[in-house]
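Work package 3, deliverable 3.1, input record:
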Amino acid sequence: MSKSQVPVLPGWFAIENGEPHLLGTRCRACGTYYFPRQTLFCRNPDCESEAFDEVPLSRRGTLWSYTNAMYQPPEPFVAEDPHVPYTILAVELEREKMIVLGQGVAGLECADLRVGMPVQLVLDTLFERDGQETITWKWAPLA
Amino acid sequence: MEKDIAVLGVGMHPWGKWGKNFVEYGVKASRDALRDAGVNWRDIGFVSGAATMRCGYPGYVAGATFAQALGWQGAEVNTSYAACASGSQALAAARAKILAGQCEVALVVGADTTPKGFLKPAPGERPDDPDWVRFRLGITNPAYFALYARRRMDLYGDTPEDFAAVKVKNAEHGLENPNARYRKRFSLEDVASSALVADPLRLMDICATSDGAAALVVSSLDYARRLGQADAVRVAAISTVTPTFASAVVEMPDIATDSAAAVEAARFRAALPAKAYEEAGLGPEDISVAEVYDLSTALEMDWYEDLQFCPRGEAANLVRSGATCIGGRLPVNPSGGLACFGEAVPAQALAQVCELTWQLRGAAGPRQVAGARVGITANQGLFGHGSAVILKR
């Protein structure tokens, strides 16, 4: 039996046409993208729009910077015991002109990474409790 | 129209983990500042407090809390909260009152008692709070500092040794500062052998949180003259601008930057001193000493560039040449900085002003920057708060 899966942040990502994407919004007037999604008012100081379209964000981007978490973060992070260090990637999306953070896929190390390298988004387990997997987005280098 | 105000007196409670009520620290710093100014508490017309969010209701109304502790005497009060820039906002409120002619002399004070262990967000499932989201995903404060540091390495060729050299410098500066919490010499090897927290940053690259308090007595120039302090240090500029959309750098606690699809991205840290320079009619070439927010060693180097002390990407040259050491061309953090203090949020921006005041008076003792005439502070905190203050003699 497959384990049940729940998203860490419902509505923040989805699989569309077989590929995982972050879900954002885009201002209908000025074209500014939002992630997390913004549906109330555009934050561009020259735009008063309150109309947005839901859009999947680019799956691929370039690495802006990266680090790792050697120490266990406090709650609401759900940690392994003992803590397993993981990488954190900041990825620049070209079309959206924004940088999005996320963990790197399991097994990835800082030594594998370099600013400017191409990466892509995947969905993976953030943590597992009581037979239930909590799913999040992670970044993986493009082979 | 007159734009400057005078700093008549400064006072601090030493930084540490004393575990006492924040009001105790604030009263001590206030009394020291009043004594230093030669001003009677009853003559203070405005008490401007920097709030603390960690000490309950008295902290939210810090201005009134300190005024009551010093003894209600009918002054007007204000409390400012602006994260790490709270002290500067409180100072700006006092300056506005003084320049509007509504008050001649004011007390500005900030104090904090920090909890033990990790600072963590409020409990519950709260996906609308960016601070909750980033902790849920495992992205702590040092991760942001490390992302900036790593980018410097890959883009500009900075090394972990460059970062460590900032710690070594600041530790040396703060060695004999009686208000500093950590007064210990560090070598490059000490930093390199401390635990890796967030690659490339190690424990000794990252600042702690502390208890502490800082206070200023500020007045109109006319009041200073009547007090025989015509040559007092002056506040020439206070910048507390917000960021300008769209953010160029991913800032704590956000999970993403703004999108620059419609508007060009702008750097917040660079905007803070730019406004201060403009307001003071001075430029980076006029600065003789700076106190900047070294939340991490590498972040101090980012500040060199945002303060326009060197072109972007060249901060490591300033570190390697010793230019930012006391005795160098442009000493940075002669107090020892956050490396020696640890952060006491509502007091920290005021502590920076205290240090520059001592420096410009030539009263900084063994850490004196020779011939200091103009100083600038810089700090940045959460949710679009930051400040830069220029002091001159």
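DSSP finds 14 helices and eleven strands in chain B.
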